[in-house]
Design a protein that fits this description.
Number of domains of chain B: 1
Distance between the termini of chain A: 59 Å
Number of strands of chain A: 14
CATH class of chain B: Alpha Beta
Largest interface: A-B, 25 and 25 residues
Largest sheet of chain A: 6 strands, mixed
Oligomer: heterodimer
Structural class of chain B: alpha/beta
Structural class of chain A: alpha/beta
Strand order of the largest sheet of chain B: 2-1-3-5-7
Shape of chain A: globular
CATH architecture of chain B: 3-Layer(aba) Sandwich
Number of strands of chain B: 7
Radius of gyration of chain A: 25 Å
Order of helices and strands of chain B: EHHEEEHEHHEEHH
CATH architecture of the largest domain in chain A: 3-Layer(aba) Sandwich
Number of domains of chain A: 4
Largest sheet of chain B: 5 strands, parallel
């Protein structure tokens, strides 16, 4: 259903009530089901979004890099405010959550085309082009590095690979992993994964060998491999670079997974923001089919059948959670499922499914080639191999770094040119914010776990502003199913605002912490269970920032403004507002 | 020791929480032994005649009169309790939050189904009327609140136990079932 709605959206610029009725009838589902899906995702809209719809990223790093000025420039040039479309319906301006371009912000997506490193000058040119009726693709003047220049991508996005390691960005010979795996038994493949001790690269760190073992042993007439390419954690863009430069290795990794668990179908769930890569990836898949690296009897091995389909997302952070991703891939709202049963038991279409991260599949391909022991020789006790990091924020060389697990934050900061860093957000908003005293800590599951997002904050960045941006992100991205997450994140954000406005007291700070504990412990999925982290970890590591904002010696301060509160109703009733206590 | 003095009020609420207070059944006789009521709909005392130990308020603040009442309570009560969903979060009345005040008032006085199309459109604006606030506020955004008793309405047992705990100084037990509503 996502594909149908997506087509309607891009063909007609909206999914109107009328379209909803038609889709519901044609697909034999209720109108409410269709409407539920349309209103769930960022890139679907019931009202027209304009012939050109501009989605400007409003993530914290985008603001560090001047998003506010860019937004103003768009508004001035286009002649309409954000959240609206121009009177002639030509241009629509909208904000969206992190689009995976944190190393080249400010960035925006216009009709599926990505525009990076925006300046006021560039905005003027882009808007002029839109007014002249040029296609968004034609407004891209310069192409980025590597495969971004290839005929099927032609994007201005840059890879910015600053450090290559042995696992992901070492040379990879096309077809080598499927050829090797065809000589092994599925048991041996799972065993090799276990020996390597590779853990899920999306952030949660579940042992991949164990996951494949569970899925393989689950009863079912059919099993699925799903690749999670929905990297939505603000500050993460590593999978984008893998998809751009190493798609062959990724797809072979998926085939390896399929062979191991006994699945003949794989699904790449690609986030909508990376639509610009779809044709290019389809082309890679097509080539692989021709070369007997996908399809029937792969690498000449009888019965080694595996093929991959690409399923586009539609803009929703929560779909990075594996059960929400499966719901979304099935064409529904991306709301997490109750667990158990786990996807390994009841997954995509109710069948046993292994959902793994893009980077994990690449590791699997490399492990098959080099052996589990080779892989396990790198890293720390509980974190083997290398990790791809997306570094952004206040540093000289933002981009991609493949590091060995166990590297200290300090070493990384030296490499990316951020010696004046004051704070580092490890693992995106849902991770941990650490200060200088912790820069000696190591990046690995045993210490500072991360799915790959590293956001550096220098002396000029207002840390509380960043925390506030992260909280607004969680409010926006909560799927709304459970109250602790839906209402809780709003309550946290408002209480934080009260403190930031200088209207907080010591009580507010204490209550803020207890609200954090409630949201963390009562939420249904990982989103709400981690969303208070920006507040909690900064209270822990930067308590002085909060202390400086609260009013000392008072146990309660109210932000209520009587005169402002009655102003509007008195104006409507045409009466003179009376002062308080009158 | 003299009996603790209790005051209660319903602001932007439905009086359901007060009904729940009455729902303590025959324990109301014990309650009369335990406490003395001052300003409250229970005894119909309209103004504070002394400082109270405990103030219990149901409902949030939707207009200027609510705000004044609430501030009076804060001034006269040593301990203030937010009773029920509306007091704690705004509750049902807060469903108008997010809809412009103008739209709400026009719906109520110009466009609602009971208004005849031929009637002149009148927006009440007498100075005696309370002024509507821009949104419905929970109590703790306007004055300091000491305790919160959740529920819609809070169960009679919870109210009873909370009051007894406050008066006797014994710790209140709040099992999971009391805080879980769905």
């Amino acid at each position: 259903m996502l594909d149908v709605i997506r087509d309607v959206q891009s063909e007609t610029g909206s999914v109107s009530e009328e379209a909803i009725v038609q889709i519901a009838a044609a697909m034999n589902v209720s109108q409410v089901d269709v409407e539920g899906v349309v209103t769930f995702y960022h890139f679907f809209s019931k009202s027209p979004v304009g012939k050109y719809s501009v989605y400007l990223n409003n993530s914290a790093v985008s603001f560090m890099k001047g998003c506010a000025a860019i937004a103003k420039a768009f508004e001035q040039e286009a002649g309409c405010a954000f959240g609206k479309t121009t009177a002639d319906g030509n241009i629509g301006l909208f904000y969206t959550s992190c689009i995976g371009m944190n190393d080249q912000e400010p960035a925006a997506i216009i009709n599926d085309v990505v525009f990076t490193n925006l300046t006021v000058e560039k905005v003027k040119e882009i808007v002029a082009g839109m007014k002249a009726g040029k296609s968004a693709k034609d407004l891209v003047k310069q192409f980025g590095d590597g495969q971004n220049q290839s005929e099927l991508v032609k994007s201005m996005v840059n890879n910015n690979i600053h450090k290559k390691g042995l696992v992901l960005f070492a040379p990879f010979e096309a077809g080598s992993a499927v050829k090797k795996v065809a000589t092994m038994t599925p048991d041996a493949v799972v065993e090799e994964m276990k020996v390597s001790n590779v853990r899920g690269r999306g952030g949660a760190g579940f042992p991949t060998g164990m996951k494949w073992d569970f899925t393989r042993k689950s009863e079912g007439p059919k099993r699925y491999i799903v690749c999670n390419a929905d990297e939505g954690e603000p500050g993460t863009f590593k999978d984008r670079v893998i998809l751009t430069e190493m798609p062959q290795m990724l797809f072979e990794g998926m085939a390896v997974g399929g062979y191991a668990i006994g699945a003949d179908e794989g699904l790449l769930y690609l986030r909508a923001e990376y639509m610009y890569l779809k044709n290019y990836l389809e082309n890679v898949l097509e080539k692989m089919r021709k070369n007997n690296q996908l399809g029937k009897d792969i690498a000449g091995k009888k019965g080694f059948n595996f093929d991959i389909k690409i399923q586009m997302g539609a803009g929703a952070y929560v779909c990075g959670e594996e059960s929400a991703l499966i719901e979304s891939a099935e064409g529904k709202r991306g709301q997490p499922r109750n667990r158990p049963p786990f996807p390994a038991q009841v997954g995509f279409m109710g069948k046993p499914t292994s959902v793994n991260n893009v980077e994990t599949f690449c590791c699997a391909a490399r492990i098959v080639l080099e052996g589990g022991a080779w892989f396990a020789a790198m890293g720390t006790l509980q974190s083997k191999g290398t990790k791809l990091l997306s570094v952004s924020g206040d540093c000289k060389k933002p981009g991609i770094y493949e590091i060995e697990f166990g590297t200290t934050v300090k070493t990384l900061l030296e490499e990316c040119g951020a010696m004046d860093a004051v704070a580092v957000q490890i693992g995106g908003p849902s991770g941990t914010c650490i200060g200088k005293k912790d820069f000696g800590r190591r990046i690995c599951y045993d210490d500072l776990a991360t799915g790959g997002s590293i956001i550096v904050m220098g002396p000029k960045t207002d840390i509380l502003q960043v925390v506030h941006n992260f909280m607004e992100f969680f409010v926006e991205e909560s799927c709304g199913w459970c109250v602790p997450c839906r209402a809780g994140n709003k309550i946290l954000t408002e209480r934080l605002e009260k403190i930031m406005h200088g209207k907080g007291s010591a009580t507010d700070l204490t209550e803020l912490e207890s609200w954090c504990a409630i949201v963390k412990s009562m939420s249904r999925c990982g989103l709400g269970q981690t969303s208070p982290n920006p507040i909690l970890t900064t209270i822990q590591n930067f308590r002085e920032l909060y202390e400086a904002k609260i009013q000392k010696g008072k146990d309660y301060v109210s932000e209520f403004d009587f005169a402002a509160a009655v102003k509007e109703s008195c104006a409507v009733a045409n009466r003179k507002p009376l002062s308080e206590g009158h | 020791m003299s009996k603790p003095v209790v005051a209660t009020a319903s602001l932007a609420g439905c009086f359901g929480c007060h009904m729940s207070v009455l729902d303590i059944d025959d324990r109301i006789l014990q309650l009369i032994d335990l406490v003395e009521f001052n300003k409250s709909p229970v005894d119909d005392i309209k103004t504070f005649t002394k400082t109270c130990d405990i103030g219990i308020i149901e409902g949030g603040c939707c207009n200027s009169e609510n705000v004044e009442n609430l501030k009076e309570f804060r001034k006269h009560c040593k301990i203030l309790i937010s009773l029920g969903e509306c007091a704690i979060m705004g509750g049902l009345p807060a469903m108008r939050n997010g809809i412009p005040v103008k739209e709400c008032m026009e719906e109520a006085y110009y466009n609602c189904p009971t208004i005849d199309k031929n009637d002149p459109k009148i927006m009440p604006n007498d100075d005696e009327l309370p002024m509507i606030l821009d949104r419905v506020y929970p109590l703790h955004e306007i004055v300091k609140i000491d305790y919160y008793l959740p529920g819609c309405p809070p169960r009679a047992d919870l109210i009873w136990e909370a009051l007894v705990a406050l008066i006797t100084g014994k710790e209140l037990s709040l099992p999971y079932e009391v805080l879980k509503f769905d």
